[in-house]
Design goal:
The chain is mostly helical and 149 residues long. It is 79% helix and 0% strand. The chain has 5 helices and no strands. The C terminus is likely disordered.
Length: 149
């Protein structure tokens, strides 16, 4: 199982940076984050949920930073897990808006952030697969040519 250098995948850096920005803002200034997303903070569980969301994003960001130590299939699986988690977040935010648990503005802002992470994660996965194919393509061709001789 070969490893693959993910510094070749620029969208992974964008996703990682986004994770750490979300983590820092939601952990260290959850009221400001709630205000930005137009969520009521007083008398609601928004602050503890914001901090849990921050810890999850920090853990995902740390995983993204350490992906160079994963094997190629593990890297692709971890990127896929990121995409699934962000997709579920977007669906949950939209459902909360439809149920009127939060305002439509809050639902749309929150879903937009989650969907931007889906796009970044999907792009990272596609770039990763393309870079991996380029890395293994010439080697596989060279081996098959030498096998024919």
């Amino acid at each position: 199982m070969s490893k693959f250098p993910l510094q070749l995948v620029p969208s992974r850096r964008a996703l990682t940076t986004g994770r750490f920005i979300v983590a820092a803002t939601h952990l260290f200034s959850p009221r400001l984050a709630a205000q930005f997303f137009r969520l009521a903070a007083s008398g609601t569980p928004a602050i503890p949920y914001s901090r849990m969301f921050a810890i999850r994003n920090a853990a995902l960001g740390l995983g993204l930073q350490r992906m160079d130590s994963f094997t190629r299939p593990q890297q692709q699986q971890f990127l896929a897990v990121n995409i699934v988690m962000d997709s579920v977040d977007a669906a949950a935010f939209l459902a909360a808006g439809l149920r009127r648990d939060v305002s439509r503005t809050s639902a749309m802002l929150s879903a937009a952030v989650a969907l931007s992470a889906v796009v970044a994660g999907s792009t990272a996965l596609i770039e990763h697969k393309r870079a991996a194919a380029r890395e293994t393509g010439p080697t596989a061709t060279a081996l098959s040519n030498s096998d024919c001789k």
